[in-house]
Amino acid sequence: MAHKADIRKGVSPLVASVLLISFTMAIAAILATWATQYMTQQTSTLTTKGNEANCVYARMSLDTYTYDKNSNQLILIINNDGRIGLQNFTLFLYNGSGIGRISLDTDNSVIGKQNTTLPAGEPRSFIVNGVSNITRFRVVSNCPEYSFVDKTV
Question: What is the span of the domain harbouring residue 120?
Answer without folding.
Answer: 60-152
